[in-house]
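Ligand-bound model needed. 2'-deoxyguanosine-5'-monophosphate.
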Amino acid sequence: MSQSDYDPDNIFARILDGRLPSQPVDQDEQTFSFADINPQAPQHHLVIPRGAYTDLTDFADRASDSELAAWVRALARVAKTSGVAKEGYRVIVNIGGHGGQEVPHLHGHVLGGAPLGPMLTRR
Ligand code: DGP
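Prediction:
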């Protein structure tokens, strides 16, 4: 994966540069976090790096240590500010086709606010 594989017009790229609206909950120099448009739990937010990374594999390959740390810290910060940290929450990162990733810009889902049930529903 290289930056040339990144689609600069994907939905989250457009949210990052203001072409599309969002409901921000947290931001810093390297991350941006906002409410999921289709919440799967009482609290459901997405945490993305500002850099152009397609997925977690790409991020681990190319991001700086500073970007990696900022994203992990933002995940935990959003859990706290959305009020789910104390009772427990789940972070999900979908990657590629089998992972069910729909938007090709790395994002972590932070879900909570109620018991979330089993990790996976078996088909
Ligand atoms: P994934 O399947 O992991 O790629 O999750 C993509 C998530 O992005 C999904 O939960 C719905 C959310 N989403 C898709 N389009 C938009 C949008 O335009 N705005 C916001 N806030 N969320 C979106």
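The radius of gyration is 14 Å.
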